[in-house]
Amino acid sequence: MLHKFTNKQVANILREISACYEAKEENPFKIRAYNNAADAIEKIDSDIGDLWAENRLEDVPGVGESLREHLNELFRTGKVKHFEETKKNLPQGMFELLKISGIGAKTAFKLSSFFHLDNKDTAAAQLKKLAEKGKIKGLPGFGEESEHKILQNIEKLTHNETRFPLHTAKEISSKVLAFLKESPYVFRANYLGSLRRESAMVGDIDIAVATENSKEVINHFAQYPKIIKIISKGNIKASAVITGGFQVDIMTQNPASYGSLLQHFTGSKLHNIHLRKLALDKGLSLSEYGIKKGSQTLKFSSEEDFYHFLDMQYIPPELREDLGEIELAVKNKLPKLIELSNIKGDLQTHTTMSDGENSFAEMVSKAKELKYEYFGITDHQWSTATHTTEVINRLIKARRLEIEQYNSSHTIPRVLFGIEINVSADNRVVYSDNLLRKFDYVIGAIHSSFGQTKEQITKRLLTLIENPLIKIIAHPTGRLLLEREGYEADWDIIFQACKKHNKVLEINGQPSRLDLPDSFVREAVKSGVLLSTNTDAHSINDLGFMPNAVSVARRGWCGKEDVINALSLGKMLKFLGR
Ligand SMILES: [Zn+2]
């Protein structure tokens, strides 16, 4: 009998074993092999259990022969003898501590041994108490600061448990949505909640379906091939766990009342509370079934009709956070948000000339498929420690020639020659102005020493903004979702400086970045700062990250006039001074 494990579960098992090896100071190659295999299993699109059943574990990079045998045992028997033995003499609490960001195998081992954290279920809570009482800072190798960090990260652990990045949520939910739409009984299907509002971090995957035959739709959903476990299955609702450990909830509604359901469960909570108050003043009460007027409940098939009935404009889901959108909708003054179709080009991309996976030709040909009017290639600066100026000049010349050849024989996209340069920890731009002038435009970013003080980070950002040759500041806060908070900077000063020097802040569409974050975008827009939605693509697939960046722009109340890459080619060239 096959034992079911999600890819994430298998990856976690391997990471635990790798942590055991690390705690026991075993061969580093062994440690890395387990970690690499865990990463690979988490990333692959196929279900690891399916691959095993089809005898295709060899297809997973990094899974060698001995690991295949272990996985074979895992799927057959539900456990692996060798793994159990490896974990045996270690404090079991260390495996829970590993989930806390910033705590690696050695630290987890040290803490759980010293404090005898032997219970996996309580280890994190116990450690939290110890940190609160100040018992960690006294241990060798720890201090006030590390104790504080541990406490912060434990709190984040409980907070992030059921939340995951938008891009991941969409990859998974779009397949469920497509599957649902295969049923002839599904009239409409939409995401709900934070997923529909395009929040950077999403909770569960909730989907609404408009249908006249709920039972058929629920039965169809239950047939979704990636379901691991059905949690509940009723007449109008169902809930299931799918591959990867994600929970999907669907609810159905008659098409005549679908708009009310969609509106109600899209939220946000605060938006709906405000809306209910406003309705109450008109003697109306709102619910997922419709709008109650006296003893009569009015039905709404569309959200547009629902909002219009309340004498206001339709409010796009991305704005429904009670941040002033209701007041403006009542006055008919909502901004017209930017749309993906407004985007005319991508201004941050990388090729094999630096750390990209695809060549110039491959990247440009993909950009052509996307029908971009222009396409900026911005490989990272070459290190001056390993490249002489002569070599750098030669590389620039070669790339310039490549671009000129392309541009002279193609109408779209017009390829622009950019570069992404660093500001060093000691606040310097290493490339000379003469060198920077060889590019069509320059992007500047912080790529190191993220732990500096607010003052130092602000100074470094200002160095980039005030440099007349730099146009765009990339991934301005440096955050990595679930991994690293953005660094602190004096954002008021940064926004003012950008406005004064006509500099652009990037909205980076990499799934783990989404940087600037939406709340910062909103402030930037209010300050009159221009933005640029870029993919920061390091492969042709990454060029598909543009919708992520546009989502953030919309949540930040951007119109197309706020985003430079909504400019036509002619205006863009003018903007760049070309
Ligand atoms: Zn970068």
TrEMBL record:
Domain of life: Bacteria
Catalyzed reaction equations: DNA(n) + a 2'-deoxyribonucleoside 5'-triphosphate = DNA(n+1) + diphosphate
GO cellular component terms given for this protein: cytosol
Entry-linked Pfam families: DNA_pol_B_thumb, HHH_5, HHH_8, PHP
Domain Polymerase/histidinol phosphatase N-terminal: 345-425
GO MF annotation terms: DNA binding; DNA-directed DNA polymerase activity; phosphoric ester hydrolase activity; zinc ion binding
Keyword S-adenosyl-L-methionine: no
Gene3D superfamilies found in the cross-reference section: 5' to 3' exonuclease, C-terminal subdomain, Beta Polymerase, domain 2, DNA polymerase beta, N-terminal domain-like, DNA polymerase, thumb domain, Metal-dependent hydrolases
Positions of the DNA-directed DNA polymerase X domain: 5-321
This enzyme's EC code(s): 2.7.7.7
Keywords carried by this UniProt record: DNA damage, DNA repair, DNA-directed DNA polymerase, Nucleotidyltransferase, Transferase
An example Gene Ontology biological process: DNA repair
SMART domains, per the entry: POLIIIAc (SM00481), POLXc (SM00483)
Protein name: DNA-directed DNA polymerase
Organism: candidate division WWE3 bacterium CG09_land_8_20_14_0_10_39_24
